[in-house]
Design a protein that fits this description.
- 2 copies of one chain form a homodimer.
- The first copy, chain A, is elongated and about 85 Å long.
- With 438 residues, chain A is an alpha/beta fold.
- In chain A, strands 7, 8, 9, 10, 11, 12, 13, 14, 15, 16 and 17 form an 11-stranded mixed β-sheet that branches.
- Chain A has 3 domains: 151 residues, Rossmann fold, CATH 3.40.50.720; 165 residues, Dihydrodipicolinate Reductase, domain 2; 86 residues, ACT domain (Alpha-Beta Plaits, 2-Layer Sandwich).
- Chain A is built from 14 helices and 17 strands.
- Chains A and B meet through α2, α6, β12 and α12 of A and α2, α6, β12 and α12 of B.
- β12 of chain A pairs antiparallel with β12 of chain B, so a sheet runs across the interface.
- The complex binds NADP nicotinamide-adenine-dinucleotide phosphate (2 copies).
- Chains A, B: Pathway: Amino-acid biosynthesis; L-methionine biosynthesis via de novo pathway; L-homoserine from L-aspartate: step 3/3; Amino-acid biosynthesis; L-threonine biosynthesis; L-threonine from L-aspartate: step 3/5.
Chain lengths: 438, 438
C-alpha cells in the first residue's frame, strides 16, 4: 500500500515535548504511515547532552549534538528546543535547505514570526505551529482553514494555564495569591521563574500569534497591551464571585471599526478581567485553556482543552507532522500565512470596554452625586451601583461604592478613575477591573 | 496579485443555508479572493422554483432549474438541497465531471457516504462536508487533521440543537416535555415534524459521520444504537438536577478494547444520559452544540458553538469552499477519507457504562438486601444508594430507591433491570438512565 519513499524527520530537542513526540512517533509508526501514505523515519534527535538521563527512554543512537547535519539531511524538521537562538538559525537553515518545519516555539514566533514566514514563502517551504498556542487545542488550523470564509471579529482566550490555575484556586478554594502560587509551583503548573506567566508575557506572545492569524495582519508583540495577575487580590476575587463574576487572565484580539468612517483597526491585549459566571470561559478550571471566537457568520465558538503538558503538546506537533508529510506525498498548498489585510493596531486607550471600580468613600450626603458627576463629565454611563457601609473598623465613617459601567472608551474610563482618585470624598480606589464578555 | 483564472462555483439550493452561503460569497468576494488567490465566481443557483419570493435577495439571473448544466460547467459544486435524491445523483455527476463537492447533507452522507467517497477517490476529486455535523463548529477538520497523529478514543457530543433546547428548558425552567417542545416549535428550534430530531435519527446520522472519521472505519447508520428523548420526563430531569446531574441527548462514538485479547472494536450510539453538572457538556444550553473528544495524547478537548442556523452553517460551507478553491489554485492532497482501520462495530450490549435506576419498592425490611443480591448476581457493583420513604399518597407503604452503579457491561445492567422489575418487592421501575462522563 505504501509507495512513497520514507520521509526523514529531524527532531531538535528531547525535553517535555520533544521526548513525548519521539515516543509517539515511534510507537504509532504504522498508524502514522497509513494516515500519510509514507513511512516517517525519525532520523535523529538533537540535544545538548547526548548522555543525559531522560524520563522517556528512546534508542540511544538517535541522539546527536550535530543539529546541522541532521537538519540538512531531513525532509521535515521539528523544532522543540525553545528559546530564540539557536532555534531561529536552525529553522532558517531547515527552510532554506528545503525542509518543512514544525515548531511549538511561541516566543520565537512572537518575536520573529514575520521573518520566518517570509523566508518560508520565498523558498516554498511550510512552517507549522499549531502547538505554539493552547498546546493540544486545535485552534490555529480552525482559524486559518475552517473560518477562512468567515470574518473573525474577536478572539478571547484563556491561554496561560499557570495563571488560570492560580486564579481558579483563589476563586474556588479561597487561597490567597501567594498560597495559590505555592501550590501551582509544587504541582508543576508554575515555573521556578514565574515572571513569563504571571506578568502576562506568555499570553502576550500567544495573542500576537492569534491576532496575526485571525486578522491577516502582522501584530508585533510590542504592540500588545499587557497586564499580568500580580495585582489581583483575594478580596477582588471574592467580591467578583459575590457579584456573579470570575476573574480570568484574558488574551483578547479584536477587530474595531470606526463608527463614523468604518475604517478598521485591531487591538491585541492581555489583562485580568471580570467575566460573567454564565460565560463559557468561566468554567475553564485549573490549568486548562480555552479560546472563544466570535465570527460574523459562525457566531460564538469555543475551543477547550489542555494548554500545556509534554504529551498533550506532542499531539498538536504530530498533527502538524501528518499535514506536512501529506504535503510531501501529494504535493500541495500547505499553510498560507500572508498578512493580506495589514490592519492598523490601536493602543489600549482606543478600545471600548466596561469597568467595575470599587471606591472607599466618605459616608456623607452628596458623595454619590459628586462621583456621578465625574462619570457623566467623561461620558461614562453607569450600569450598576452598590453602596455599602464599611464594616472595616479602621475605615469607620466610610462606605464602599462598587460601580459597574456601560461600554465606554478605555481612555475615558481610565481618566475617570484618575479623577475619582483625586476627589476629596474618595478615600481609596480599592479595585479597578475591566468586564469582558456579554 | 490575483493570477489564477476565476473559479466557477455552482450552488444547489437557496434555502436557509444556501441563500446565506450565496450572500456571503457575493458580499465577501474580495476577501475570499485574497484568501484563495483566485476569484470565486458564483455561476448560478439551482432551485425548484426560480420565481419564489425569498428572504435573502440575490441577483435574479443567478437562479436556474437546470442543475445539470450548472454542475457540468463548474469547478466546485456546493450541494445544499438536502434529501437523498436528486442530491446524490447531482453530487455523483459533479464528482465524475471533475468538480470538487461541498455538502452539508448529513442524511445523504450517513446513508451513502461510503459510495460517494469511493467515487471521489476514483476520479481524484474531493468531497468536503464540515457543515454536516454541528454546523458552524469546526469539528471534522480538527478530527481529520489536527488529531491525525493522535489516537482518538472517544467522541461524545450534543449534536442536535432541537432536543438540547427541549431538555435545557425542562432543566432550567421546569417546563414539561410538551411545553418545552411547544416553545421550541414556536421559536423555530423544532421542525413541524419533530421525529428526526426527537427520536434521535438526526443525531444518529451525525454520530455515523463522526465515528467514521475518528476511527477510520465505515460505520453504517443502521449499526448505531438509537434512543430518542421521547421517554424523558420532567420528574427524571428534576431528580437528575437534585443529584447533581443534567440529562443530555448524547451521541457517542467509542473505541473499545477487549481486556484479554486487546482486539479493538467500536461502538456508536445515541441516547439520553445523565452527565455531571461539572462536565463541560453540562453548560451547553439552548440550541447550542458541543463535541467532547478524548484522545490518547491530547487528553480531553471540547468544541462548542452553534449547531444549526442558515448563516452559521454557511460559515462552515465557506470554510470548505476556501479549502477546495485553494486546492484548485495550488493543487494538492485535499481530504483523505479512507477507512483504513475498519474496526468491527459492536452492539450496545457489549459496551461498558454506568446506570442510575429508580425503583419503587415495598417499604419493608430486607428489600434492599434482595435488590443488592440481584445486582451482585449480575456482577453489577453499586456506587450509591439513596432510599426515601415515598411521599406519594397513592404509593403509601412504598419507598423509592435510587441506585447508581459502577461501570459494568450494558448487557448485565439491562438484565439486572429486567430481573429487578420482576421482583415481588419492586412495585415499579420508575426510571433507568445511563451515566456518561467522569
Ligand atoms: N512544555 C509545554 O507544556 C509546552 C507547551 C506548549 C509549547 N511548548 C514549547 O515547546 C518548546 C519545547 O518546550 P519543552 O518544555 O519541551 O522544553 P525543555 O523541556 O526545556 O526541552 C528543551 C530541549 O531542547 C534541547 N536543547 C536546548 N538548547 C539546545 C541546543 N542549543 N542544541 C541542542 N539541543 C538543545 C534540550 O537538550 P538537553 O536535554 O540536552 O538539555 C532539551 O532536550 C518550547 O518552545 C516551548 O515554549 C511547551
Ligand atoms: N438549516 C440548518 O440549520 C442546517 C444545519 C446543518 C446542515 N443543514 C443541511 O443543509 C442542507 C440544506 O438545508 P436547508 O435548511 O438550507 O434546506 P431548505 O431550507 O429546505 O432549502 C432547500 C433548497 O434546495 C432547493 N431544492 C430542493 N430540492 C430541489 C431540487 N430537486 N432541484 C433543485 N433545487 C432543489 C429548494 O428549492 P426551492 O427554494 O425552489 O424549493 C431550496 O432552495 C440539508 O442537507 C440540511 O440537512 C442544514
Amino acid at each position: 500500500m505504501i509507495e512513497y519513499r520514507n520521509l526523514r524527520v529531524a527532531l531538535l530537542g528531547a525535553g517535555s515535548v520533544g521526548s513525548q513526540t519521539a515516543r509517539l512517533l515511534l510507537e504509532h509508526a504504522d498508524e502514522l504511515a497509513s494516515r500519510v501514505g509514507a513511512k516517517l523515519e525519525l532520523a535523529g534527535i538533537a540535544v545538548r547532552n547526548t548522555s543525559a538521563k531522560r524520563d522517556v527512554e528512546l534508542p540511544a543512537e538517535l541522539y546527536t549534538t550535530d543539529a546541522e547535519a541532521l537538519i540538512t539531511s531531513s525532509d521535515i524538521v521539528i523544532e522543540l528546543m525553545g528559546g530564540i537562538e539557536p532555534a531561529k538559525s536552525y529553522i532558517i537553515q531547515a527552510l532554506t535547505s528545503g525542509a518543512d518545519v514544525i515548531t511549538a516555539n511561541k516566543a520565537l514566533l512572537a518575536e520573529h514570526g514575520d521573518e520566518l514566514f517570509e523566508i518560508a514563502d520565498q523558498v516554498g517551504a511550510q512552517l507549522y505551529y499549531e502547538a505554539s498556542v493552547a498546546a493540544a487545542i486545535p485552534i490555529l488550523r480552525p482559524l486559518r482553514e475552517s473560518l477562512a470564509g468567515d470574518r473573525i471579529n474577536r478572539v478571547m482566550g484563556i491561554v496561560n494555564g499557570s495563571t488560570n490555575y492560580i486564579l481558579d484556586r483563589m476563586d474556588r478554594f479561597g487561597d490567597s495569591a501567594e498560597d495559590a502560587a505555592a501550590v501551582a509551583l509544587e504541582l508543576g503548573f508554575l515555573e521556578a521563574d514565574p515572571t513569563l506567566d504571571v506578568e502576562g508575557y506568555d499570553a502576550a506572545q500567544k495573542v500576537t500569534i492569534l491576532a496575526s492569524l485571525a486578522f491577516h495582519t502582522s501584530v508585533p508583540v510590542a504592540s500588545v497591551h499587557r497586564e499580568g495577575i500580580a495585582s489581583v487580590t483575594l478580596e477582588q476575587v471574592r467580591a467578583a464571585r459575590e457579584a456573579g463574576y470570575v476573574i480570568k487572565l484574558l488574551a483578547i484580539a479584536e477587530r474595531l471599526a470606526d463608527p463614523d468612517t468604518g475604517v478598521e483597526s485591531i487591538s491585541a491585549r492581555v489583562y485580568p478581567a471580570l467575566i460573567s459566571r454564565q460565560h463559557p470561559l468561566a468554567t475553564v478550571h485549573e490549568g486548562k485553556n480555552a479560546v472563544f471566537v466570535e465570527a460574523e457568520a459562525a457566531g460564538s465558538l469555543m475551543f477547550y482543552g489542555a494548554g500545556a503538558g509534554g504529551v498533550e503538546t506532542a499531539s498538536a506537533v504530530l498533527g502538524d507532522l501528518v499535514s506536512a508529510a501529506r504535503r510531501h506525498v501529494a504535493g500541495g498548498p500547505g499553510v498560507a500565512q500572508k498578512a493580506h489585510a495589514s490592519l492598523p493596531i490601536v493602543p489600549v486607550g482606543s478600545i471600548e470596554t466596561r469597568y467595575q471600580f470599587t471606591l472607599e468613600v466618605a459616608d456623607e450626603p452628596g458623595v454619590l452625586a459628586t462621583v456621578a458627576t465625574v462619570l457623566a463629565s467623561h461620558r461614562v454611563s453607569v450600569e450598576t451601583v452598590i453602596q455599602t457601609a464599611s464594616t472595616d473598623t479602621e475605615a469607620s465613617g466610610t462606605a464602599t461604592l462598587v460601580i459597574g459601567t456601560h461600554t465606554a472608551r478605555e481612555a475615558s474610563l481610565s481618566a475617570t478613575v484618575t479623577e475619582l482618585a483625586n476627589l476629596g470624598v474618595v478615600t481609596a480606589v480599592k479595585s479597578v477591573l475591566r468586564i469582558e464578555g456579554i
